[in-house]
Specification:
Largest sheet: 5 strands, mixed
Number of helices: 4
Order of helices and strands: HEEEEHEEEEEEHH
Radius of gyration: 15 Å
CATH topology: Nucleoside Triphosphate Pyrophosphohydrolase
Number of domains: 1
CATH class: Alpha Beta
Oligomer: single chain
Helix content: 10-25%
Length: 152
């Protein structure tokens, strides 16, 4: 598709998964393309549901299999416009899910990540993807005082 349209924006649908462990920490992946931390997720494949996309992307990017996921939100608009380092642009509609019921071993399975770690919400890395910051602020900041760490 990119050969036909170049770097022009593509409209894509995708899913993001917010994983919490038993300590209440959330899983983040450090992306290899932009060197920032964010939630696992990605673009829907032909014939998939958003739930199937969320579960597949979580497994592909982390080695973890979600036994169940819970819908949180649909993101769209300006926050879903993204330009990759190679110039490709996307405009997305992204479903956000959460789970604390996963199995498997945490492992980097593709070239999209350089690291995978669980973080307490009040001890997040400074270089978060804007969308990840937004999801935490809107939906999960009540779990711990997220802004105590990010404003320092």
């Amino acid at each position: 598709m990119r050969k036909l349209i170049g770097t022009q924006p593509l409209f894509v649908a995708g899913a993001t998964v917010v994983v919490f462990n038993k300590k209440g920490e959330t899983l983040l992946q450090q992306r290899s393309d932009i060197n920032k931390w964010g939630f696992p997720g990605g673009v829907m494949e032909y014939g998939e549901s958003l739930e199937e996309t969320a579960i597949r992307e979580l497994y592909e990017e982390t080695g973890l299999k979600a036994k169940d996921i819970e819908f949180v939100d649909i993101l769209s608009g300006e926050k879903e416009c993204f330009k990759y380092p190679n110039g490709d642009e996307i405009f997305g509609v992204n479903a956000v899910y959460t789970t604390s019921n996963v199995s498997g071993e945490l492992s980097i399975n593709d070239g999209e990540s350089t690291d995978l770690k669980f973080f307490a919400l009040n001890k997040l890395p400074f270089n978060l993807i804007e969308k990840t910051q937004y999801i935490i602020k809107i939906h999960f900041s009540q779990n711990e005082l997220f802004f105590n760490k990010s404003e320092q």
